[in-house]
Write a structure and sequence with these properties.
With 470 residues, the chain is an alpha/beta fold. It is 42% helix and 13% strand. An eight-stranded mixed β-sheet has the order 3-10-9-8-7-4-5-6, sandwiched between helices.
Amino acid sequence: MIFIDPASDLSLVSQIVAGISLAIKEQRLRPGSKLPSIRKFSQSHKVSHFTTVEAYDRLVALGHLTPVRNAGFYVRMTSDAPLIEPPPATIVTDEEFDFDAYLLLQKVFQPMGMILRPGIGLLPEHWTDNDGLQRSMRAMARRELSDFTGYGHAKGCARLRAKLAEKLSDAQIAAHPDQIMLTTGGSHALDLAVRYLVQRGDCVLVDEPGYHNLFLNLHIQGAKLLGVPRTSDGVDLIVLEELIRLHRPKVLFTNTRLQCPTGTSLSLAVVHRLLQLAEKYDFLIVENDIYADLDPTGQQTLAGMDQLSRVIYIGSFSKTIAPALRVGFIAAHQDLIDELVPLKLVSGLTTSGIAEELVLDVLLQGRHRKHIKQLQGNLAQAHETVATRLEAMGMEIFAKPHAGLFLWARHPLIQNSTELATKARDQKILFAPGQLFMPDARIVPWIRFNVAHSMDDRIYEFLGREVEGL
C-alpha cells in the first residue's frame, strides 16, 4: 500500500500517516474503501501492532478514516462520494479477530458472543461485592444532593484518602492522606504515572510476561520496553541488572504480587534486591499492587520496605468490589503527588465523588472484610481445581500461587497459543494467548487462565480434542 523506510528520520507512525493520507488524496484509496486489518497491515509492512494502531488512530483523529465497530477501518466518506456499505457491525470475521491488546480490551467490555471466557481478567459477577455495593447505593440515595453537585477535591474524597492511609498503614506503608491521590481505577493511575515519568525514546523496564494494557500505554508514549523475565519468586535479577547497566532506564513497572499473567509474587529477597538496584542505579519503581486484597498472606510490598522514597504505589478497588466501580489510587512521595495533581486535572478534572463515596461506604461496612475472606477462599478452591485439571491434560504450570486470579500454563505439544486461541473462538471460548503479555508481542506457547472462569468442562473438552489432534 505504501513504502516505509526504516532508515528515515521520520518515525514509522508518521510515515504511515503521511503515506495513507497521500493515497487518499490521490484517490488511490477511495472513500468508503476498507483498509487492511491491523494484523495484516503490520505483517505486510513489517511493523509492530502498536505502530499500526497508533497510525490508524491518528488518521481517525485527522478525519481521514472512520472506525466501524467490529468491522475495521474505512476511508471517511465525503458528501458526494458513492456509498460503499461496510459489513454489518455484528459480524466478526477471522480478519478482524486479531489477538492483540486492543482485542483483549474489547472482548472484556463487549463479550462478542463468547460463551466461555477463561482469558478475561475479571471476577465472575456473583463473586463481586454486589450486596455491599447495593447497600451503599441505597444509603447514598438518602443523602443530600448538595453533597455531590461540586467537582470535589483535586486529590479525591478526603475521607476515603484518610481511610486508605489506615489501610496502607496495616500493610506497613506509612502514607499521609495528602500523599494519596484518587484516580479513575488502576489503569488511570498507571496512565498518569506513564505520562509523568516517560518521554519518547526512554528505556523502561517491564515484567515479561506482563500487563498488556501497560505495554500499550508505554508504546503510545514512545517508550522502549525492556522485558525482565518473570520467575517463580519474582523477576530474574541477573537479567535485570544487565539491562540496567546497558540501558540505564528511568523506571521499572512491576506487579508485586499475584501478577498478571503468571500469578507469581516477589519474594522478600527479590524485594530487597530490587530496592538496592534502584538506589545504586538511580531509577524509580512503579509498584502495581491492584491484586493486594486477593492475597491472604499479607506479603511485604516494595512500598512498605521503601516507604515511598523511590516507589510509586498503585492500588484499585475494581477487582474486589465491582469492575464498574472505577476507583483507584496512587500513593507516593509528597512532592511527586503534588506534581501529579495538575496532570490529573488537565487530563480529566476531578474524579467521581459519587464513586469514591460508594467505595468509602463499602469499606466502612463490617461485611466487606468477610466478603474479601470468602473471595480468597473461593479463589483458592478454584486454583486447586483448575491446576489439577490442567496437569491431568499434560500441561505445565509456571507457578501455583493458590491465590489471585491467574495461572500461566502451556502444553509441550502446543507451540503457538495464539493459533489455539483462534480455534477456540469458533467454539465461543475466549482464551488469552501468551502473545498478549509479551512486550514485543511475539508468539509463545503460554496461556493465561483466569481460574474463576476456567472450571467449565467444555474448556477441557476443547483442549483435549486439540491435544489429541497433534
